[in-house]
Design a protein that fits this description.
Blueprint lengths: L1 E7 L12 H11 L2 E6 L4 E6 L4 H16 L5 E5 H9 L10 E8 L19 E6 L2 E7 L20 E5 H13 L3
Antiparallel strand pairs: 1-3, 1-4, 2-3, 5-7, 5-8, 6-7
Helix pairs in contact: 3-4
Length: 181
């Protein structure tokens, strides 16, 4: 059995696609996943499965959730090893408390260092870097409203990514490390 986290896009945001975590856990168990746990209401589901093809897992979850909850589900799945690598490669700026820090998980369709060319950031107030499967974004809190990335949801690429803050990302990995794998 291998451990994964599924990041669900667009649930429990702005009163749309409301899914209780208890019923979400039940749906993952119905699919056949084991040791299912959730973290906060934004759709972070940790589970175990014998399936090793992440694409197959994503498709299976999207199909089940779209049918059960009547919305077009989009899910990004990461293995425990991928989460460990993501956290291990946090940029140094992620330790600065005067900056906001996000991890932007990329779907396989846009997972490339070339994604950086799509964003003309304001280097004096924000930083953006790529590591396999993620973008690391930080912005100076005093100037965050002027940031280019603050308007990320208006971009077409946004439908192929999901954002978690650094604390949530760390907590998910800690939960994965706390379970018996």
């Amino acid at each position: 059995m291998k451990q994964y986290v599924a990041f669900l896009r667009g649930i429990n945001v702005g009163g749309n696609n409301i899914i209780k975590m208890e019923t979400l856990r039940g749906e993952f168990e119905r699919i056949g996943y084991q040791s299912v746990r959730t973290y906060i209401q934004s759709g972070n589901v940790i589970f175990h499965t014998a399936v090793i093809d992440k694409n197959k897992i994503e498709i299976e979850i999207e199909k089940a959730l779209s049918t059960k909850y009547d919305y077009k589900a989009k899910v990004l799945v990461r293995s425990k090893n991928e989460m460990e690598n993501t956290v291990a490669h946090f940029p140094k700026i992620f330790s600065d408390p005067n900056w906001k820090h996000n991890v932007i998980f990329l779907s396989s369709t846009i997972n490339s260092k070339d994604i950086l060319t799509k964003f003309d950031i304001k280097k004096e107030i924000e930083q953006l870097s790529y590591f396999n499967g993620v973008l690391y974004w930080s912005a100076n809190m005093a100037s965050i409203t002027r940031s280019v990335m603050i308007k990320l949801s208006a971009r077409k690429e946004y439908k192929e990514m999901t954002v978690r803050n650094v604390n949530t990302t760390n907590k998910i990995l800690a939960m994965m490390n706390d379970s018996n794998e």
